[in-house]
Write a structure and sequence with these properties.
18 strands, 6 helices, alpha/beta, 434 residues
Length: 434
């Protein structure tokens, strides 16, 4: 039966088998970055309580403040030294400067030294990321700005671990940059101690809070074996396209889909217009410096070419080069949600053998809209009917999403022991003769 299927992980630019690698290799980028399109390996497991939203918290005058963070890879879910309701943290101060590579001012590294090294020992290090705008990209592996960014992150983390830190809370150096899983710069993706990364705005709030008592019990680290997969495996979306403006429905049928391993545990069914989710050209760039200057400073409603309010946002993987500044699936969900979308549909370029769940399940934000992925054949279907409908006024394509309960939608397949007898098969004679 379908519920016993085993599907290996596959990413949108070519991928290997399990475990999931959170990266996509694109032409022009020789180093796969950690922020990339992550797909989780499918293992048919019972749904447990999902722990998508990860954060640490502090308390002041009886008021608890949650500080969202993105957990990094680790062999342990947590450690005794890190996992506490009253962990002690210390803000690390650096003496640093951005090192220009050439006359154009392209930055390849940040020179830094820890000013309060001894204060870190036995505590959680609160580490600010580099303010440098890493630039230069000529296709060579050692000239990739994302490589500079990731190496700078790892250098800071390793320095405080060497100084005795039992955990790390790291903050992005550029405003608007969404934290991510930092991989692609090292062979072993696992960090030596628990590491959680924050956006600059969240980090700036956290670093001035009561660091002498931080609750880290809501910040488990990411492990592949902890991925939480929806059950049933396959749910479905209902596609509706009218034959004519204001006329009866023409195409109306279910499309099999998978719910992402991240997202809300419960969500209402939504019926809304499907709209292509495309970023503005400033967010197409595959360059850290350009993203920092021209994209990340914009709001969610400013970065899409179309209004997503109340719509179902449709992303397609064949357009992945247009997602340079935001390349994690959970980033798409967060941005679409902030732009007012009711749900996200991701059209993959995969066949059945490579169709996997979008992940990872842990995110540094509380997502309230569901995220669905499709097979290539149904991606092509949606693109075809959307293009056809675009030529006719009042001829919108509508998608209905399933009710989400316990992180899963209604099953697409009936129980395998049910015999429904003969089934009719309807076929088109041709595109012009339905």
């Amino acid at each position: 039966s379908a519920d016993r299927a085993t599907v290996i992980c596959a990413c949108a630019g070519g991928f290997t088998s399990s475990p999931p690698v959170m990266s996509v290799r694109r032409s022009g980028r020789s180093v796969a970055r950690g922020a990339t399109l992550a797909l989780a390996v499918l293992a048919i497991l019972p749904v447990v309580t999902r722990a998508d939203f990860v954060y640490v918290s502090t308390t002041a005058s009886g008021v608890v403040t949650k500080h969202p963070c993105a957990p990094q890879h680790n062999t342990e879910n947590t450690t005794a030294a890190f996992h506490k309701t009253n962990a002690e943290a210390v803000l690390v101060t650096f003496t640093e400067s951005c090192e220009p590579e050439n006359a154009a001012g392209d930055v390849t590294a940040s020179n830094f030294t820890i000013s309060n090294r001894t204060a870190v020992n036995g505590k959680i290090a609160v580490v600010p990321g580099s303010p440098c705008a890493f630039g230069t990209h000529d296709g060579a592996e050692d000239k990739d700005p994302w490589f500079y960014y990731l190496n700078d992150f790892q250098g800071r983390v390793d320095k405080v671990i060497d100084a005795g830190a039992v955990g790390v809370i790291w903050g992005e150096g550029k405003p608007g940059k969404i934290p991510e899983q930092m991989t692609g710069h090292k062979t072993n993706v696992n960090q030596l101690v628990p590491v959680c990364t924050m956006s600059k705005s969240d980090f700036d709030t956290f670093k001035v809070s009561t660091l002498s008592s931080v609750d880290t019990t809501t910040a488990p680290m990411y492990r592949t074996e902890d991925e939480q997969y929806p059950n049933p495996t396959f749910t479905y979306l209902s596609l509706e396209e009218p034959w004519a403006a204001g006329g009866p429905n023409g195409l109306e049928f279910p499309i099999p889909a998978k719910v992402a391993t991240f997202g809300p545990e419960t969500a209402s069914s939504v019926e809304a217009e499907l709209v292509a989710a495309r970023f503005i050209s400033a967010c197409d760039d595959d360059n850290y410096e350009q993203c920092a200057s021209n994209c990340w400073t914009k709001t969610a409603t400013e970065i899409f070419t179309k209004n997503l309010t109340g719509k179902i946002a449709f992303f397609a993987s064949k357009e992945e080069l247009h997602y340079g500044c935001y390349s994690m699936f959970s980033h798409w969900a967060k941005l679409a949600m902030d732009a007012g979308a009711a749900a996200v549909v991701y059209g993959t370029e995969q066949d059945v053998g490579g169709w996997s769940f979008a992940g990872p399940y842990t995110t540094p934000f509380n997502l309230t809209i569901p995220f669905f992925s499709l097979l290539k054949i149904h991606t092509d279907t949606l693109e075809h009917v959307t293009a056809e409908s675009a030529t006719r006024a009042g001829h919108e394509v509508t998608i209905k999403t399933p009710l989400i309960a316990r992180g899963a939608g209604a099953g697409y397949f009936a129980p395998s022991d049910t015999d429904f007898g003969p089934a009719p098969v309807l076929m088109w004679r041709g595109f012009g003769d339905h």
